[in-house]
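Design a sequence for this backbone.
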């Protein structure tokens, strides 16, 4: 679902453009591929790429919540350089909430990419760790890439050498890309990759300015879970082919999650539903003790 919602948001806010989506996936069912293709229109093209399970990354490099699939960013520009000199890479946990004209018209001559600096707390740790000037460590959830320059400088090969070297990078591919692209990026305002961390109820969207072009939901609390669903994200779900799908409660199956959702429902004056989930919480808690 997340990829489809992200794509739908781009389509809805850019009706004036001919869009080509290159979807890189691993072990995605044919049913989901069919649903992705429902987004296709006269000016919308969907191309799906199945990524092999043999995608080789040194597991000792991957820490925190980072998975090997995140390193797909290393191969996307190399593959797509055959068809385009510019590509907008987006993580799945994003929403496009405005027209992309300003972003795609940025001059990338002699630059690898256009990016947005990461949060200050990340800058404080990662700039020193990656030997990058303070303020120039970017978040890799949105990268507008010059694929010609990427290929000319063999960034894919260099990135895999680094990630498999045995050195542990806290943010894996993001650290590697920051190191490789240092001094060759265009830094953009945060509205092009507005980072937000959700709490129960998803009220954080209310704090985002109207100038936001791309909203990026960082941390494991994602808006496609009931506990963190935001009104804005719900709007884009309802505008997609996933509108009738039931959402999972949260990203973890724990009794405390059910209790938190019951509390959220009660705060919204949905008392019957709150009671139902609280009783479910008590049942899960009792079962866990057994």
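Sequence:
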């Amino acid at each position: 679902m997340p990829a489809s919602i992200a794509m739908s948001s781009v389509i809805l806010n850019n009706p004036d453009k001919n869009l080509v989506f290159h979807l890189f996936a691993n072990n995605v069912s044919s049913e989901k591929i069919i649903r992705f293709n429902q987004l296709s229109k006269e000016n919308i093209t969907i191309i799906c790429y199945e990524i092999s399970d043999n995608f080789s990354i040194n597991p000792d490099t991957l820490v925190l919540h980072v998975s090997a699939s995140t390193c797909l960013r290393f191969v996307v520009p190399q593959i797509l350089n055959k068809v385009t000199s510019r590509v907008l890479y987006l993580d799945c946990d994003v929403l496009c909430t405005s027209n992309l004209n300003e972003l795609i018209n940025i001059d990338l001559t002699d630059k690898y990419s256009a990016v947005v600096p990461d949060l200050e707390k990340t800058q404080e740790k990662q700039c020193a760790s990656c030997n990058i000037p303070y303020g120039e460590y970017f978040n890799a959830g949105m990268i507008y890439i010059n694929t010609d320059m990427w290929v000319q400088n063999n960034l894919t090969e260099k990135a895999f050498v680094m990630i498999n070297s045995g050195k542990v990078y806290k943010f894996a591919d993001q650290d590697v890309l920051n190191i490789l692209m240092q001094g060759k990026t265009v830094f953009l305002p945060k509205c092009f990759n507005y980072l937000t961390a959700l709490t129960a109820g998803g009220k954080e969207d209310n704090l985002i300015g109207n100038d936001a072009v791309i909203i990026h939901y960082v941390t494991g609390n994602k808006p496609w879970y009931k506990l963190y669903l935001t009104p804005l994200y719900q709007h884009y779900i309802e505008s997609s082919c996933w509108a009738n799908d039931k959402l999972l409660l949260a990203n973890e199956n724990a009794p405390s999650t059910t209790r938190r959702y019951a509390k959220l429902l009660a705060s919204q004056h949905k008392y019957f539903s709150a009671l139902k989930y609280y009783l479910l919480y008590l049942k899960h808690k009792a079962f866990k003790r057994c």
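The first strand starts at residue 19 and ends at 25.
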